[in-house]
Specification:
With about 100 residues, the protein is mainly beta. It contains no helices and 4 strands. Strands 1-2-3-4 form a 4-stranded antiparallel sheet, with no helix packed on it. Strand 2 (about 30-40) and strand 3 form a beta hairpin.
């Protein structure tokens, strides 16, 4: 018996946790796309898919460049980067 379903997925929204508590940066959002397939027989299973994730308003923290001496968490400066792209392929097989 052979079964080869196709799988696709698209979503958009806020990741878990929401914006930082002090709300100094815009909320981070994501747009996700995934497309793949699964192949199954009585003795062999395989799946393969590709994905693309676009992150918007990526929060980035760095130590205050004007800080001297011992660094502590209050010395962090947080700003919003435009975003990032994540993409790739994944696969799995069992026999």
């Amino acid at each position: 018996m052979r079964n080869t379903p196709r799988v696709s997925h698209a979503s958009a929204g806020l990741p878990p946790g929401g914006p930082p508590a002090n709300n100094v940066v815009k909320p981070q959002t994501t747009t996700n796309f995934q497309l793949g397939t699964v192949y199954k027989t009585d003795r062999f299973n395989a799946d393969f898919d590709g994905y693309f994730i676009r992150m918007h308003n990526l929060p980035v923290s760095t130590v205050d460049p004007n800080q001297t001496g011992i660094v502590n968490p209050n010395d962090l400066v947080t700003y919003t980067a435009e975003g990032a792209y994540y993409y790739g392929v994944e696969g799995e097989a069992t026999y």
